[in-house]
Amino acid sequence: MTLKEQFIFNFIEDSRWKHLLKGLGNTLTIAFFALLIGVVIGVVVAIIRSTYDKNRDSLARSSNILNYYAFACLNMICKIYLTVIRGTPVVVQLLIAYFIIFASSTNGIMVASIAFGINSGAYVAEILRGGIMSIDNGQFEAGRSLGFNYIHTMIYIIIPQVFKTVLPTLLNEFIALLKETSVAGYVGIIDLTKAGDIIRGRTFSAFMPLFTVAIVYLAMVMLLTWIVGRLERRLRKSER
Amino acid sequence: MSDNFLIKTTNLCKYYNGGKIKALNGVCSEIKKGEVVVVIGPSGSGKSTYLRSLNLLEHPTSGTILFENTDITDPKTNINLHRRKMGMVFQQFNLFPHMTVLKNLTIAPTKLLKMSADEANKKALQLLTRVGLADRADAYPSQLSGGQKQRVAIVRSLMMNPDVMLFDEPTSALDPEMVGEVLDVMKELAREGMTMIVVTHEMGFAREVADRIIFMADGCIVEEGTPDKIFSEPEDPRTKQFLNSIL
């Protein structure tokens, strides 16, 4: 068969392209919500961990010693979260989420979004924590000396600078996340990869569907890279 | 009467490494309203630690700091409220690099004092005009010279209407030709009656502007007095040695 015939056979006949389109939609949905969840978890965990690291002394001295214990406890929870999530494969986490934790849910897309989001959050948290620790202490001091409390200093002054410096590393994580969603097929979700595989199973021709899937992933990653690159250039405006 | 001083420290101590290093070793001092106090001393004498303790950027190991009759070392005190009244200028400027000059100036008053954006912008431009930087309002800190950065940093503190300004070696990171422009701004502030505590190596500034000079060594105040007295007839041998080595 020529390429053209293969293309017609794999995608046009029986409207098999609809599988791919549906799969692409699911992949994007999962990746998008996982990214949101991951960033939120990441910011929170990174702030808790770096706050504890930077302020352990003053927390221990604070009028309310309960604050100190609460923070120590939160920090410990964060550390356990990071250890467990980074220490186990994402497929296993997905299976556990789907078959055990959310066993009663029939919304696979939602379960997968949450599972991938929780997974990504651990990596985002450590990327951001590295960024927070790299900001000059003078920035904290300037914020605090104006009268901002610790959290406001973080939100208004530190985190915006952190995002700028960690953007390339963060993009790495987002790319990894987007491609990792390709294991969603394990729990019966028809994502882009699974859709390609379904076509392959129907047509018994592997070349066209699998390469198409690969090219679509590649295109998405290139688009993402381009968008982040533009964002980066905009943020770098302040550096002359 | 306790009302005629703005800041009073009693037996201020700051120890590191469990007491092995005594950065501050029982500093008692009183700063009156409207006074310009210059703190001098050899490096490692504790003068920066003393200044940074006053707004609790360094937390003293023991001792008390009364600011406007409130003990700010008391853990129950909300230090964030008192810091608004204490402007701080750093050696390294510490401007926020991701914000324009205008945003650097307005972020604290708009967020903390609930000043409207219009009002804050207006005030920022007024102050910028006074330090000769009105045309740089939309620049980013990286586009400014050292002297310009420090003038912006001073204005940033002034935006909060502080009752006292703390200067931590404000000209030490500047090229020599830029020192003057920053000192001029500080002199004008002093003339207007701002209470100022300045840690500096600029002896000319100290002599001209200070009401009182505090000489520190080894974490203690060794000697204090008017510039005339300290520079002309220092009593303590350490003061003499220090002045001999720099003048």
Structure overview:
The complex is a heterodimer of chains A (240) and B (247). With 240 residues, chain A is mainly alpha-helical. Chain A has helices at residues 3-12, 17-61, 65-87, 90-101, 108-134, 137-146, 150-180, 192-203, 207-235. Chain A has one domain (3-239): Orthogonal Bundle (MetI-like fold), CATH 1.10.3720.10. The longest helix of chain A has 45 residues, at 17-61. Chain A is elongated and about 75 Å long. Helix content of chain B is 37%, strand content 26%. Chain B contains nine helices and ten strands. Chain B is globular, with a radius of gyration of 18 Å. The model of chain B has no long low-confidence stretch (mean pLDDT 94).
**SS-derived structural category of chain B:** alpha/beta
Q: Give the H and E element order of chain B.
A: EEEHEEHEHHHEHEHEEHH
CATH class of chain A: Mainly Alpha
Number of domains of chain A: 1
Q: Helical stretch count of chain A?
A: 9
Q: What form of chain A results from the Cα inertia axes?
A: elongated
Tell me the strand order in the biggest sheet of chain B: 6-7-8-3-9-10
Short description:
The complex is a heterodimer of chains A (240) and B (247). Chain A is built from nine helices and no strands.
Keywords:
heterodimer; A: 240 residues; mainly alpha; MetI-like fold; 0% strand; elongated; B: alpha/beta; 9 helices; 10 strands
